[in-house]
What does this fold into?
Amino acid sequence: MNFSKSRKVVLAGLFSIGMIGISAAKDGNNDGGFGLKGGVGFSTLSFGEPKDVESFNFKNNKNTWKVGGMVGVTYEKRFGDHFALDIEALLANKGVKRQSTYSILGKDGKFTLKGNLFSLDVPVSAKFYLGDNFNIYAGPYFLYIMGGAAKFTHDFDGKTQTKNSSNWYGDDYKDINGELPMNRFDLGANVGLEFVSNGGFGVGARFQKGFLDLTNNDYKGTLTESDGLIMGDKKFVSNTGFQVYTLIRF
It folds into this structure.
């Protein structure tokens, strides 16, 4: 089974489990315990500016937000009326939307890509409850990137070409030493707020920021814009994202 099919099977399975759990959670509570969580995220990556090559001159490069989903399980341990510790295991789709314009031989062109990172996220949050239902929280998150790919569009001289890249973490992107262009691990922080009803149904929102450089400094290969992945002059690449979600405890 290839990478794309495997991802679809896993997400479909988690969605089915989530629907079963929600249907069974008739007597949920707000006293902590296990739960299911799912939602939508808005993420971007801090790619730097690509280098000009001979007569190929980049004019404008813009990274914007990409929408992706997330789903998984959570466990909260309450300590009295006001404090709790929460740990999650989530499958998430993160990445970036990037647009670059350039000129060559007196003509203008544009690259557009939608880059996807498919990750396992493990946020660990300390929560402070304000009353019975509302809490604010903060803590670290740990991330492992299972794979990544991009949809790439090139517009030049009235013609448009579109293609999909292969897995950024697959053999096609390894250099002669077997190194990949991006690291798989990230460490960051999340801060958010949440409302959980007495019946165990909740909604929340949070901001996440990665602290580590995803660039693999041992990588000796070369990448172009058409590969769907550019490190640029400033090679520090990090995650930034917002997530909104619903949860159910049982």
